[in-house]
């Protein structure tokens, strides 16, 4: 795994986003929360420059400790507002790094995130947007401007939350259907790669932000 591995870059972006929202979170022991982020950041640098195969990185003590710390921090987060939802997403991403590393070597940024497949349970229109609830073995709220994507079984890219007016979207529909419910494996993600151009662009834009 190279230091510029997209999973590492996204985790680093996540730490920056967590620092930004830390003062707005409804959490006990805020200083301790920020200190733990600093410790996660330091351990991530050890992982970043380990120069080991991704499958071996998944077993690294530092990475497992990072995952454990992120999991504990996430339990204190209330998802009652956009700041809480954002913090929950990034802590969950960091927590899942060992599983993401088990995917092996990756070449595309979209191979560094999680995708889910599920059925659209409900939808309602507001303005030119559709607000959808998708059952992916858990409920995921997705906002889209395409009515065509609000029907049946759909793949959803699990992305950092975005606000659309008063609504928060926790993912983006992909123009693909696998007829299953649950998380996609890396082979399934690569199978739908031709439909992931917009997801790729969004992630590249996210990583290029200062």
List keywords for this structure.
single chain; alpha+beta; 210 residues; de novo design (two linked rop proteins)
Question: How would you describe this protein?
Answer:
It is a single chain. By secondary structure, the chain is an alpha+beta fold. It has 2 domains: 6-101, de novo design (two linked rop proteins) (Up-down Bundle), CATH 1.20.1440; 112-208, Nucleic acid-binding proteins (OB fold (Dihydrolipoamide Acetyltransferase, E2P)), CATH 2.40.50.140. The chain has 8 helices and 6 strands, in the order ααααααββββββαα.
Topology:
Layout: H1 6-21, H2 30-48, H3 54-57, H4 61-74, H5 82-95, H6 97-101, E1 114-126, E2 129-135, E3 139-144, E4 153-164, E5 167-174, E6 182-183, H7 186-191, H8 197-208
Helix pairs in contact: 1-2, 1-5, 2-4, 4-5
Uncertain stretches of 5 or more adjacent residues: none
Assign the CATH class of the largest domain. Mainly Beta
Number of separate helices = 8
Run of helices and strands: HHHHHHEEEEEEHH
Find the count of extended strands (DSSP E, 2+ residues): 6
Shape: globular
Q: Remind me, CATH topology of the largest domain? A: OB fold (Dihydrolipoamide Acetyltransferase, E2P)
Report strand %. 15-25%
Q: What is the typical, i.e. mean, pLDDT?
A: 96
Query: What does the largest sheet look like?
Result: 6 strands, antiparallel
Structural class comes to: alpha+beta
Question: Radius of gyration over alpha carbons?
Answer: 17 Å
Helix share bin: 40-55%
Domains counted in the coordinates: how many?
2
